[in-house]
Amino acid sequence: MNGQIRGQIAPGMQVDIVLKQDQRTGKLTRGIVKDILTNSPSHPHGIKVRLTDGQVGRVKQILSQ
């Protein structure tokens, strides 16, 4: 699943995100969602989340339910 719909993402899920500094290269960072930062129900570039390690980025792929 892609990460454009807020309702598909919940804390505790494993996701791949792209960090702000990696947007040009598209390098993905894997982690567990701690907080969902985007308030709107969807976002064309991916829902912004904070991982348990503190990194913030936009979800590109949801790996686990």
TrEMBL record:
InterPro entries: DUF2196
Any Pfam family: DUF2196
PANTHER family: YWBE PROTEIN (PTHR40069:SF1)
Protein name: YwbE family protein
